[in-house]
Design a protein that fits this description.
About 30% of the residues lie in helices and about 25% in strands. By secondary structure, it is of the alpha+beta class. Helix 1 runs parallel beside helix 12. The longest helix has 18 residues. The protein is globular. The relative contact order is 0.19.
């Protein structure tokens, strides 16, 4: 088969590349290869009854498939250059922001009409945070919710499926450079194209490293974020979440001067498992529909670690910590904050008697046996700091799930067009190491699609 454009990966970057390409040039012959399932077939077997914990499926329905790892996230699109990646360093701040706003418009017109845009601009919480040695980052955020996000993706797929070829459950093995384009190999088959867009997300980080090594594309080590997911009664954070929904708060620890940050806040949400390359970690989701909301709010507390010399494998470091957690807990570990600071393991009885009803079936345990002291000390400091702006955060019954790890791909050497040293080979989204969010990944897809359309 010969295509004008082949897209590897049907996450946000790949989807918005495909959307913009076909919108600007309907005659293009496009193929999308995805290792996971179509949206309607993405089902995690965990039901809380027969299957209570991760069974390590060959293809994780939460991480892979149409929509990527963001399909079952809580659908937060942050419009900002202050976090979520460094796309602006390649294409400029103004253009990056405009593209994120364009993505938001598409989401709104494909099912997100009734959702709300939140903003930290002019909020009184900035002063409150600064008074307590915390920094609230600037952003506008559209919260779709896991349920509305699914509808948006479903509508976009319905618009695309008859205009290009989608190959699901078709992982690409490797990419070959041809004189006039590229050959994409999958199993015993292959397809050729003039332009190739790689958008494999965080879950494709190992594959991406292999491709870069085979094609001699320079990379440099990126960071890994390691921490826990906090779950507490929603009312404790309601004064923040009602106005801001997503509050990105950074704290600089007194002991080590490390930055600890909140990430992926889910008001009235649930805590979930995540399977990355066979390693079970934790994440959080939330829904827009009131019938699916809980009485808890959850968010991550993460510490970034970036290694240079002599050790450079940041992801390997994160994996080793996650594997240790899996070894001790058989998956995700949960611990009461009160037990952690008292230096004792949590047990099922103390958690059951606590004020917070866990939304994820996890193994009661001791996170101090898993997380390095420096990281754990920073997380404990951050919880006490948050307690000053949201009293009750440091309650004994606050639950900590571990570990949460955000793996980032090695940062790939791409130019201002997000193009590699090979003409027509683009690497976008979280797989590039440049973007770390739904909005930035989607924007990078639109940007490259417009570049290709101009050249067609």
């Amino acid at each position: 088969m010969k295509y004008d454009v082949i897209i590897v990966g049907a996450g946000p970057g790949g989807i918005f590349s495909a959307y913009e390409l076909i919108k600007r040039n309907p005659d293009l012959k496009i193929a999308v290869y995805e290792s996971g399932y179509p949206l309607e077939k993405r089902r995690c077997p965990i039901d809380g009854k027969k299957v209570k914990s991760c069974i390590k499926c060959k293809t994780c329905a939460i991480m892979s498939g149409f929509g990527g790892a963001g399909a079952f996230s809580d659908g937060k699109y942050n419009i900002t250059n202050d976090f979520g990646g460094t796309l602006h360093e390649h294409i400029g701040r103004v253009q990056a922001t405009e593209l994120m706003k364009y993505v938001d418009e598409i989401n709104v017109t494909h099912g997100g009409e009734g959702t709300r845009m939140f903003s930290t601009a002019g909020t009184r919480f900035k002063k409150l945070c600064l008074q307590n040695k915390l920094k609230l980052l600037d952003a506008s955020v559209r919260h779709l919710g896991t349920d509305i996000n699914y509808i948006v993706l479903k509508n976009i797929y319905a618009e695309l499926k008859d205009k290009m070829h989608f190959y699901f459950q078709t992982p690409v093995d490797h990419i070959e450079i041809l004189d006039d384009g590229y050959r994409v190999h999958y199993g015993d088959e292959s397809a050729d194209c003039s332009k190739c867009i790689i958008s494999v997300g965080r879950s494709g980080s190992k594959w991406m490293e292999t491709v870069c090594r085979e094609l001699d594309i320079p990379t440099k080590s990126n960071r890994v974020d390691i921490g826990v997911r906090v779950e507490l009664p929603a009312v404790i954070f309601s004064h923040l979440t009602d106005e801001l929904y997503e509050s990105k708060i950074v704290y600089r620890t007194e002991k080590f001067e490390d930055n600890v940050r909140t990430f992926c806040m889910n008001p009235n949400g649930i805590v979930v498992n995540e399977n990355t390359n066979g390693i079970v970690t934790v994440n959080g989701h939330s829904y827009e529909g009131e019938d699916k909301q809980t009485e808890n709010t959850n968010f991550a507390l993460l510490v970034a670690k970036h290694f240079s010399e002599p050790f450079k494998d940041s992801n390997g470091y994160g994996e080793s910590i996650a594997r240790l957690s899996n070894m001790l807990g058989g998956g995700v570990i949960v611990q009461r904050f009160g037990d952690l600071v008292r230096g004792r393991r949590s047990n099922a009885k103390r958690i059951e008697e606590g004020l917070v009803v866990p939304t994820l079936a996890a193994t009661p345990g001791d996170l101090s046996l898993v997380l390095p002291k420096r990281i754990l000390d920073g997380i404990i400091e951050m919880i006490y700091a948050l307690d000053k702006i949201a009293p009750g955060t440091a309650n004994d019954d606050t639950l900590l799930y571990g570990v949460e790890v955000k793996f980032y791909n090695m940062e790939v050497d791409i130019d201002e067009h997000l193009e590699t040293k090979y003409k027509g080979l683009y690497i976008i989204g979280d797989g590039s190491g440049v973007t770390h969010s739904l909005s930035h990944a989607s924007a990078s897809g639109v940007y490259v699609a417009r570049r290709i359309s101009e050249e067609s």
